[in-house]
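User: Okay, second chain of the day. Same drill as before: sequence in, structure tokens out.
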Amino acid sequence: MVSSCFEMAPEISQIKEQLMDVHKRLVKLIPSLDKENIDILNELKVISKKTSEAGKMASAYHLLHLLLPYTNKCDEIFSAVRSLSSKRTGALIVVQREVRIDDWITKGTPLYGEITSSLLNSIFHVASPLHDGAVWIHNDMILSAANILPLTKKTYKNTKLGTRHRAAIGLSERTDALVFVVSEETGQESFAINGSLYPFKVMS
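Assistant: Same drill. Structure tokens below.
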């Protein structure tokens, strides 16, 4: 339900609070930068971590608003992403928005099932024959699984992107689809839209 979707994303006040904490720490730290104090390095690590967390919170907040007009099952999707992330199970979930994606994917196995967290978890279980490729969601239905997406041709300096991430970016370059990615190596949750990839964190 929509109400539970909002419970899985941070409120704008939480993001502001996190950013204000970063700001206060920076204001306090700057005058001390020229002093020989190793604690400065520890504080910089804390600030870096808090800034990264604020970025993920902001991404989750905007993600919800990008998703809500196109499905009423965002709670099931978020729940599945959180579960898959905790198990470090790789996943690729495409939510079709205004632009049809038919011409940009190699279609996999038709399912036409209602979106549930349990079904998504089952699809991406490593023992499932459908776990490779992407799930295709339109409105409140899983249309198919094991779909193959076009890979981006972009190169990224100092960043190694796996096939799932390159596929997510590739489809988002060609359509307005919203593509969720869960990293098999790290469990990191990300989403791609308009050719860019954003890490985010679903609230517990």
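The chain has two domains: 2-66, 71-199.

User: Thanks, on to the next one.
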